[in-house]
Specification:
The chain is of the alpha/beta class. The protein contains 9 helices and 11 strands. The protein has 2 domains: 136 residues, Rossmann fold (3-Layer(aba) Sandwich), CATH 3.40.50.2300; 101 residues, Arc Repressor Mutant, subunit A. 39% of the residues lie in helices and 18% in strands.
Length: 245
């Protein structure tokens, strides 16, 4: 489906409305499309209508527990009526740290396991990691160099060439540039850049992003006071504009 390229869809199955809301907000902030189910029966109804790219599935559900839902997804004899493939990635949520639960989930082919309470940022990072593992072909372009006029960005050598010069970027400066240049015209908030470049474990001040953007501009912009590549979207964040490159 075309959706997989632009906006992966995540199905959240949990009977706690507040948890679904928090997780949905974090996932949508990172560009995912989110659909929700409050129990196993509702989840199966959604699966019959469409195929999400990944399921975040709570173990403790009313009526039909998460193990039963996972078994239906994985078992060829029972998921035949669903509009999915049996290998759809599943991340299970549990409030119990019982190793037996983890083993039972992995026996069913669950891709990852997150124990409540958890950091929403951590869950987003787990979603990203599982999707990368499940769709390696979709990441083939990640190693390809990007060319925008006189600006050349090489992810393998982690080098930048601009007008014949090779500015020395720090690791985070390169990561910022690469992220934005890989998604031209997409506006990123400072919080999104913190999450994507520094990682969910970094609980820093958003001014960290501002400082790195300023330093990046000093190294790649012909006139840092009038940036043409890394542009500010006032009141929102930053974007890379290839039209001016």
């Amino acid at each position: 489906m075309g959706r997989h390229q632009a906006s992966p869809t995540i199905l959240i199955v949990d009977d706690e409305a507040t948890l679904r809301e928090v997780v949905r907000r974090y996932l949508e902030r990172d560009g995912y499309t989110v659909i929700e189910a409050q129990d196993g029966h509702q989840a199966l109804a959604l699966l019959r209508a469409d195929r999400p790219d990944l399921i975040v599935l709570d173990v403790m559900l009313p009526g039909m527990d998460g193990f039963r839902v996972a078994r239906i997804v994985r078992d060829e004899g029972e998921y035949a009526a669903l509009n999915i493939d049996g290998d759809i990635p599943i991340i299970m949520l549990t409030s119990r740290g019982d190793e037996a639960d983890r083993l039972a989930g992995f026996d069913l082919g669950v891709d990852d396991y997150v124990v409540k309470p958890f950091s929403p940022r951590e869950l987003v990072m787990r979603v990203k990691a599982v999707l990368r593992r499940a769709n390696p072909a979709s990441n083939d372009h990640a190693d390809r160099a990007l060319d925008f006029g006189t600006l050349h960005i090489d992810p393998l050598r982690r080098t930048v060439q601009i007008g014949g010069k090779l500015p020395a970027l720090t690791a985070k400066e390169f990561d910022l540039l690469w992220l934005m240049a890989s998604h031209p015209q997409q506006v990123f908030t400072r919080e999104q850049l913190l999450d994507r470049v520094w990682g969910y474990e970094f609980y820093g001040d958003e001014s960290t992003v501002t400082v790195h953007i300023r330093r990046l501009r000093e190294k790649i912009e012909p006139d840092p006071s009038r940036p043409i590549y890394v542009q500010t979207v006032w009141g929102v964040g930053y974007k890379f504009d290839p039209a001016t490159a």
